[in-house]
From TrEMBL:
GO MF annotation terms: mRNA binding; structural constituent of ribosome
Entry protein name: Small ribosomal subunit protein bS1
Native species: Meiothermus granaticius NBRC 107808
CDD domains membership: S1_RPS1_repeat_ec1_hs1, S1_RPS1_repeat_ec2_hs2, S1_RPS1_repeat_ec3
Family label: Belongs to the bacterial ribosomal protein bS1 family.
Gene Ontology biological-process entries: translation
Extent of Basic and acidic residues compositional bias: 508-523, 531-544
Record's compositionally biased regions (Low complexity): 27-38
Length: 596
């Protein structure tokens, strides 16, 4: 090589210079040596006349021989030749260094592009990979030198803690890869955004600021975080927003999250909470039934906690409370339309308008039916019409009636079924005190146990069972209390007349009088076979109510008396007993006349 050819004389001259520098014995010049002096001077003069003096050449050759390099050193050089193996670089040593093509750059270039990357005369900075001066081998790396310089810059950025702009190159398992100062760095998925994002493809090719959160040059590890930068920006924006907000302000924002207890609204750096109780005046099961993520809303600031960075908002505060005007909008007696929003054991809740609900008590659902649960009459979600019965704005209570919007069948019952009218119906219930009979759909009457038969009935269930058809007569109807008294025995044939005489009096014998305190002072009753004393041993069933065996019982019933009687089952029974007593007294008088 040319470099080796040029180095050989330099090395020889250097040796001569080294030998001349060694101490020698001074001797007078000989004749043979004398002529040579002018030649040396002439040679020296001729050498000095060239572009470089011999002294400079010797100094340069000596510097090359003395200069050494070590592995890991960064050197500056000049490209002297591009070969098939790489690029030859003069770094000031007696041997030139070689930069292999695979050590030129981190970019994936073709061989032709790599050969054209550097030209002779270009300055280059390289990293010493291997240095064997004895064998004349020096291997350099341009990309290692650039990486070393990049690490120095990266270390400075890491120490300063300042964000750096990067461009995402690709997506890998668990995150993204970006280049920072030419060095690959890893951006974990958890550090890409404020919330973990499962889909990272959209970030490939994007440029954004990041912060170096971990640096290890020995392992070549650089961990980046975009989330740290966003949190820092968010904190600054939050502090600015909190300093400007005050209670009572009306703000606008976007719903960013919907939870069971409320929704969060972004206010430009601060997320305000709208509790579920402050969303609307109306009823709902979950906040998502009212608001959706991404929806823009207006709200009123209720309170601000600067230390905890919390803002409480209210959406319903921007709309009037419906209970303030309920008396004017829905006066008592007016009819309203609403939707059944809830069913309980005691009634149904109807939403008249958002935030205004009324209760239809179970007793106000139907005129004729007595349901065990409101679901037998209405269903949740059903649209109904109801009448306003009572209003209490202070207690936020609204009482409604469903049956009031329908005709009351009890009002027409007395006209359609006057006392004594025979009716037929099916047994709907059995109790110890009587039998309930349905005379019309939803309208029931009671046959008291005393009105079931002329004979005493101990247990009505011995004679009837549910579903049996029974014929009875109307005794009394109370449309206010919704009660009907019936009598079965009034339609039955009375038993035959019978007179029973106490066995002791047939023989003229008297039973021994029981002694007791004060009996001597009692007034004596008149004696006689026709007196009331003789009837003490008679039973009620032995007498004929109607006076004839074929006469119906209700023929002896006086409608005028029944109409003026109290409207309950027991008083109706008393009326029946009164008729029996009248019949007994008449029978006693007849018996007395015959015997007199």
């Amino acid at each position: 090589m040319e470099d080796q050819a040029t180095q050989t004389p330099v090395e020889t001259g250097t040796q001569e210079a080294a030998s001349s520098a060694a101490p020698k014995t001074v001797t007078p010049p000989s004749a043979a040596q004398t002529p040579s002096a002018p030649l040396e001077q002439g040679g020296a003069s001729s050498a000095q006349s060239g572009p470089f003096s011999m002294e400079q050449a010797l100094q340069d050759a000596e510097a090359r021989l003395e200069k050494t390099v070590q592995r890991g050193q960064i050197v500056q050089g000049t490209v002297v030749l591009v070969t098939h193996d790489g690029v030859m670089v003069d770094i000031g040593t007696r041997t030139e260094g070689l930069i292999p093509f695979n050590q030129l750059t981190e970019e994936n270039l073709s061989e032709e592009e790599l050969k054209n990357l550097l030209k002779p005369g270009d300055s280059v900075t390289a990293y010493v990979v291997r240095a064997d001066l004895d064998n004349g081998q020096i291997v350099l790396s341009k990309k290692r030198a650039e990486s070393d310089q990049s690490w120095v810059k990266i270390q400075a950025l890491f120490d300063q803690g300042e964000p750096v702009m990067v461009t995402v190159k690709e997506k890998v398992k668990g995150g993204l890869v970006a280049n920072i100062e030419g060095v690959r760095a890893f951006l974990p998925a958890s550090q890409v955004d404020l919330k973990r994002t499962p889909e990272l493809d959209e970030y490939v090719g994007q440029s954004f600021p990041v912060k170096i959160i971990e640096l290890n040059r020995k392992k070549g590890r650089i961990i980046l975080s975009r989330r740290t930068v966003l949190e820092s920006e968010q904190k600054e924006a939050r502090a600015q927003v909190l300093s400007q907000l005050k209670e009572g302000d009306v703000v606008e924002g976007q719903v960013v999250e919907v939870t069971e207890f409320g929704v969060f609204v972004a206010l430009g750096g601060v997320d305000g909470l709208v509790h579920r109780s402050e969303i609307t005046w109306g009823r709902f099961n979950h906040p998502r039934d009212v608001l959706q993520k991404g929806q823009h809303v207006r709200a009123k600031v209720l309170s601000i906690d600067t230390e905890r960075e919390r803002v409480n908002l209210s959406i319903k505060a921007l709309t009037p409370d419906p209970w303030l005007t309920v008396s004017e909008k829905y006066p008592i007696g007016s009819k309203v339309n609403g939707k059944v929003v809830g069913l309980t054991q005691f009634g149904a809740f109807v939403e008249v308008e958002p935030g205004l609900e009324g209760l239809i008590h179970i007793s106000e659902l139907s005129w004729t039916k007595r349901p065990k649960h409101p679901s037998e009459i209405v269903k949740e979600g059903q649209e109904v019409e109801a009448q306003v019965l009572r209003i209490d704005p202070a207690e936020r209570r609204l009482s409604l009636g469903l049956k009031q919007t329908q005709p009351d069948p009890w009002k027409s019952l007395p006209d359609r079924f006057p006392p004594g009218t025979p009716v037929k119906g099916r047994v709907t219930g059995l109790t110890d005190f009587g039998v309930f009979v349905e005379i019309e759909p939803g309208i029931e009457g009671l046959i008291h146990v005393s009105e079931l038969d002329y004979s005493r009935v101990e247990k009505p269930s011995d004679l009837f069972k549910k579903g049996d058809e029974v014929e009875a007569a109307i005794l009394n109807i109370d449309p206010v209390e919704q009660r009907i008294s019936l009598s079965r025995k009034r339609l039955l044939t009375p038993p035959p007349q019978a007179v029973s005489i106490p066995s002791g009096e047939e023989d003229g014998e008297r039973r021994p009088r029981r002694e007791g305190a004060g009996r001597e002072n009692r007034p004596k009753r008149p004696k006689g076979k026709g007196g009331p004393r003789e009837g003490r041993g008679l039973r009620e069933r032995d007498f004929d109510y109607g006076g004839a065996g074929s006469t119906a019982a209700y023929n002896n019933y006086d409608p005028t008396v029944a109409a003026s009687s109290n409207t309950n089952v027991k008083l109706g029974d008393v009326f029946g007993d009164l008729l029996s007593q009248l019949s007994l007294e008449e029978e006693h008088e007849k018996q007395a006349e015959k015997q007199g």
